[in-house]
Amino acid sequence: MLGPGQTTDVLITANQPPARYYIAARAYASAQGAPFDNTTTTAILEYKTSPCPANGCSATPVSASLPAYNDTATATAFTTTLRSPQKVLVPTDIDENLLFTVGLGLNKCPSGANASNCQGPNGTRFTASMNNVSFVLPSNFSLLQAHHQGIPGVFSTDFPAAPPVNFDYTGNVSRSLWQPVPGTKIYKLKYGARVQLVLQGTSIFTAENHPIHLHGYDFYIVAEGFGNFNPKTDTAKFNLVDPPMRNTASVPGVW
After folding, report:
1. Structural domain boundaries of the chain?
2. What letter does residue 66 receive in the DSSP assignment?
3. 130, 147, 133: which is closest to 251 by C-alpha?
4. Helix ranges, the chain (H)
5. For residue 15, what are the contacts with CB-CB under 8 A and spacing of at least 6?
6. Strand ranges inside the chain, DSSP E
7. How many angstroms separate the CA atoms of 221 and 227, rounded?
8. CB atoms within 10 A of CB 255
9. What is the pTM of this model?
10. Could you tell me if 233 and 206 are in contact, meaning their C-beta atoms sit under 8 angstroms apart?
11. Where does 96-252 sit in CATH, by number?
């Protein structure tokens, strides 16, 4: 199970009868009604001692049986069994405790906008948001440039540490929460801070599986689950012994 932009090191145990085998992959899509490329990509793994002549082999490789494109149970069963190869010293004294909701939203299209960019309901435009903030890309300076050069007015530091409105994130979300606020906001962390970040998927408009990546950083995935994250009960599920380290995590419509 790989999210867009995600990398994984894989060890293959060659313990099957010598032959030619397909390595196959297909898309996983959890968002209902969203179009996607439902094709299967394949490669061939061939044992050196497989029964093929020197001029090639016409035998059909052994086919793989793949889960359905929307088989959430299989995708979750895989991601929740990942472990680090050795014990990990996970910090338990947390300096910053953050809860970020991740989901879709709808914004009004500006006048004169291309119709192809406004394919949401009633001529609206789909947008992504975290904690009800939809990122607006600066037009003249990058965030890093503005930070290092002290250029004012490019971004603000008031990105919320938790959703501004508490609601049933994975339930029937009120339409009043479908329109996020546009902004160029950041959340500042102290250097060396120990951060616990809960990424909570939402069902605003529809639930989807979306990758989260922070350039130059890795993080430990200590737990994931369905429904709304409950800090009173779900923290007991944290794997603080050998959690996997990733540079990209998929928010699977849950947490």
Report:
1. 20-74, 96-252
2. P
3. 130
4. 72-79, 143-149
5. none
6. 20-26, 40-46, 96-108, 124-130, 133-135, 181-183, 195-201, 209-213, 219-220, 245-246, 248-252
7. 17
8. 23
9. 0.84
10. no
11. 2.60.40.420
Instruction: Yes or no: say if 208 and 31 are a contact pair by the CB < 8 Å rule.
Output: yes
Per-residue tokens: 116: 């192809």
In one-letter notation, the amino acid at residue 201 is G
3-state secondary structure of 195: strand
Q: How many CA atoms lie within 13 A of 27 on its CB side?
A: 12
* The total number of residues written for the chain in this structure: 255
User: How many Cα atoms within 13 Å fall on the side-chain side of residue 183?
Assistant: 17
Q: Is residue 153 pLDDT above 80, yes or no?
A: yes
Contacts of residue 225, Cβ cutoff 8 Å, sequence gap at least 6: 234, 237, 254, 255
pLDDT tens digit string along 72-110?
A: 888 888 888 999 989 999 999 999 999 999 988 888 888
Distance CA 151, CA 84 (A): 42
Tokens 């001529």 identify what position?
123
Residues 6+ apart with CB under 8 A from 55: none
